[in-house]
Amino acid sequence: YIQANLSVPVDKIESDVLLSIARTTLSSKFVGAESDLFSKMIVDAIKSVKINGPDGKAKHPVGQVNIIKSHGQSSHESMLVANGYALQLARGSQEMPTFVTGAKIALLDFDLKKHRMSMGVNIVIDDPAELERVRQKEM
Questions:
Q1: 39 and 22 in contact (C-beta within 8 Å)?
Q2: Which tens digit of pLDDT belongs to each residue from 9-47?
Q3: C-alpha distances in angstroms, 114 versus 87, 96, 111?
Q4: pTM here?
Q5: Among residues 46, 86, 84, which one has the least CA distance to residue 67?
Q6: For residue 22, how many other CB atoms are within 10 A of its CB?
């Protein structure tokens, strides 16, 4: 009876109701003072990961939403990276930019970090295939 008469699919619920649900959920948490900011962010994040399953039903995989905590910043500085992905990394130098737009990103399947060799060891390889074989052997 409840599912047939009282339940409503999530994608049929209006945004103001979803905001109220999120605000109520956050009211007992430590971010209660900023519940308006975080409730809107939560609703937008969940809507952005919506997918339609093979049966046509909308699914909202909560695991697709990543939260990065940054110590030393105000909660008012929190933001949703829409249609993107944020990585928590530190700058290597103070001269490096803190924000980059229009970046071209390469996805690599190997580590770019240099491996330190023992004292006095020097390896010279001219063939890229041989280099890859040595890297795989070292890992």
A1: yes
A2: 777 888 889 899 888 888 777 776 788 888 899 899 988
A3: 21, 21, 8
A4: 0.59
A5: 86
A6: 19
